[in-house]
TrEMBL record:
Residues 16-473 form the Aldehyde dehydrogenase domain. Gene3D superfamilies: Aldehyde Dehydrogenase, Chain A, domain 1 (3.40.605.10), Aldehyde Dehydrogenase, Chain A, domain 2 (3.40.309.10). Pfam families: Aldedh. CDD domains: ALDH_y4uC (cd07149). This is Aldehyde dehydrogenase family protein. Belongs to the aldehyde dehydrogenase family. It comes from Halobacillus campisalis. Keywords: Oxidoreductase. InterPro entries: Ald_DH/histidinol_DH, Ald_DH_C, Ald_DH_N, Aldehyde_DH_dom, ALDH-related_metabolic_enz. It comes from the Bacteria.
Length: 482
């Protein structure tokens, strides 16, 4: 039985628009097409940017309460249609239906928090009289929107990542043009539908589908686009920074996340958390666990327990509620993961479990004795593979954890507070989770990393700060008027 292929339009400035050419969105599990969406042209991207710029410039006053009302309506719509959103996420992407339901819940919360943060975009008074000669000056600063924001999102969180771009942008009064991943555009289009139904003024949101090569440069380089918010790979991120010029940039570029397990940790808890952190969303997660450093005295026990727990994971139909892991986003990605694993094994790594590919499926894989020179030890695997190493001390674990060009998030398991604080002080990351895996995040926290992991922070409040500019106002008062 073949799935009916649905024809979709993209959103340009509040209008649903078809394309002269289209491309198919496929279900990675069956490789069957599920939708046909427009292959946008450069001219259509230009139209979206121009409409966004016009909408922003002609809306002299967009009251905060109106922005809050729209965002609340969208959050309510998402909750009322939660299962529809979940089916779209699971159909076009890699997530199981249970993981997709969790993403819908988070995305609705992301939009809700955006509504709440809209009322807290505040400035503060400035004591100008701290300078001699400025005794008769008073003033303040307030924050105003940057204008038009260009956003580019990845496939792995096709709804919540889009919500993290659109929510703060609308909350702060900006117009936004969004380019979702070509393999998972349907979730973004469904969220755009919610904004249209909520009464978002025309021009403030466009969702442009198609090839990044065709329309991406136009979005990144257009002078009316004041900020680029990008989540994706390091190579693409570096190219964007080279092309964007003096625009504001917010970039989350991935990681190779480490977790440290010390001998004083609760090993059962550590295994449970790191197995989940390694293999949820098929490992296609920027904060997923990729390297685990375990103290020598508990290393063997940890590896044995970890492998046994990994073997219990159910790989299969992502629409089955009993499934733990579905396929990767496509067979090409599964083949890449397979090649990285094979390369590591050829260089001396020991395959403790997994390493089997069937189409886009790749079994959860555990490697030990991986040489530091192997690609998989240094780069982001973005697949269901974890590397486990023995270490003799916390110092060694921290040093080796830092020895990559990424620094997004990390975790440490220990019952000793001094050990925890040593890691907090010395691990070069944007976030460290104590007695938890690196794969922990709430949508309200500042989220981002150091080194090659990106620029700036996401999380609604912090994204709003990036999407607004402070404007200083100073009054020089006239004295002796009476």
């Amino acid at each position: 039985m073949h799935t009916k292929v649905k024809a979709m339009n993209m959103l340009i400035g509040g209008k649903w628009v078809a394309g002269k050419e289209t491309f198919e969105v496929v279900n990675p599990q069956s490789n069957e097409p599920i939708a046909r969406v427009p292959l946008a042209t450069r001219e259509q991207m230009l139209e979206a940017i121009e409409m966004a710029d016009r909408a922003y410039r002609t809306t002299q006053v967009w009251p905060t309460h109106e922005r809050i009302a729209i965002l609340n309506k969208v959050a309510n719509y998402m909750r009322e249609h939660a299962e529809e959103f979940a089916v779209v996420i699971a159909s076009e992407g890699s997530k199981t239906i249970n993981e997709a339901r969790g993403e819908v819940k988070r995305a609705a919360q992301t939009i809700q928090i955006s509504a709440e943060e809209a009322r807290r975009i505040n400035g503060e008074t400035i004591n100008f009289d701290q300078n001699e000669g400025s005794e008769n000056r008073v003033g303040y600063y307030y924050r105003f929107p940057v204008g038009v924001i260009g956003a580019i999102t990845p496939f792995n969180d096709p709804l919540n990542m889009v919500a993290h771009k659109i929510g703060p942008a609308i909350a702060s009064g900006n117009a936004i043009v969004l380019k979702p991943a070509s393999v998972t555009p349907l979730s973004a289009l469904k969220l755009a539908e919610a904004f249209v139904k909520a009464g978002l003024p025309e021009g403030f949101l466009s969702v442009i589908t198609g090839s990044g090569r065709e329309v991406g440069d136009t979005l990144v380089t257009h002078p009316s686009v004041q900020m680029i918010s990008f989540t994706g790979g390091s190579e693409a991120g570096e190219k964007i920074t080279q092309k964007a010029g003096t625009k504001k940039l917010s970039m989350e570029l991935g990681s190779n996340s480490p977790v440290i397990v010390l001998e004083d940790a609760d090993l059962s808890d550590a295994v449970q958390a790191t197995v989940s952190g390694s293999f949820s969303a098929v490992g296609q997660n920027c904060i997923g666990v990729q390297r685990i450093y375990v103290q020598d005295s508990v290393y063997t026990k940890f590896v044995d327990t970890f492998v046994n727990r990994t073997a219990e994971l159910n790989v299969g139909d992502k629409m089955d509620e009993l499934t733990d892991m579905g396929p990767l986003i496509n067979e090409k990605e599964a083949m890449r993961v397979e090649s990285w694993v094979n390369e590591a094994v050829e260089q001396g790594a020991v395959l403790q479990f997994g390493g089997v590919r069937e189409g886009a499926f790749f079994t959860p894989t555990v490697l030990t004795d991986v040489p530091e020179t192997a690609k998989i030890a240094k780069e982001e695997i973005f697949g269901p593979v974890v590397l486990i190493y023995p270490v003799d001390s916390l110092y060694e674990a921290v040093e080796r954890s830092n020895n990559v060009n990424y620094g997004l998030q990390a975790g440490i398991f220990t019952s000793h507070i001094n050990h925890a604080f040593y890691a907090i002080k010395h691990m070069n990351v944007g976030g460290i989770m104590i007695n938890d895996s690196s794969d922990y995040r709430i949508d309200a926290m500042p989220f981002g990393g150091t080194k090659g992991s990106g620029i700036g922070r996401e999380g609604i409040k912090y994204a709003i700060e990036a999407m607004t500019e402070p404007k200083v106002v100073s009054f020089r008062l006239q004295e002796n008027l009476l």
